[in-house]
Design goal:
Number of domains: 1
Shape: globular
Strand content: 15-25%
CATH architecture: 3-Layer(aba) Sandwich
Strand order of the largest sheet: 2-1-3-4-5
Number of strands: 5
Number of helices: 4
Low-confidence stretches: none
CATH topology: Rossmann fold
Helix content: 25-40%
Distance between the termini: 22 Å
Largest sheet: 5 strands, parallel
Structural class: alpha/beta
Oligomer: single chain
Length: 113
């Protein structure tokens, strides 16, 4: 199974669209009609889809710690501060990650892009 990537609403929708054009299984909060969901609901949605969530929202880092303390799992978080990389560079790096890693590699893992 290929690594799936779900982008929350803090990420430009062009990232998910660009990944799809390059053959990566990707979706965005906008595509999934998930705008306005809480961070925890976004992470739960990604887990149901067995997708790693890509975000610019640092609250997900805290949420990952809380889930670990409560012994709950997630399918992984990839984080980078907004405006640190261009949309194109995010797409390039995420595509590389999707090609190299299996979904299980990211379970309960936080990766800094």
């Amino acid at each position: 199974m290929a690594l799936r990537i779900y982008t929350n609403e803090s990420v430009h929708v062009g990232v998910a669209a660009g990944l799809k054009r390059r053959g990566v299984e990707a979706s965005s909060a906008l595509d999934s009609d998930n705008l306005g969901l809480t961070d925890e609901a976004q992470l739960e949605y990604a887990a149901r889809k067995q997708a790693v969530i890509f975000t610019h929202d640092s609250d997900f880092l805290r949420l990952a710690q809380e889930l670990t303390k409560r012994k709950r799992t997630h399918w992984g978080i990839i984080y980078i501060q907004a405006d640190e990389l261009s949309v194109g560079e995010c797409i390039r790096r995420l595509k590389e990650i999707a090609e190299v890693f299996d979904p299980g590699d990211f379970k309960d893992h936080v990766e800094f892009l």
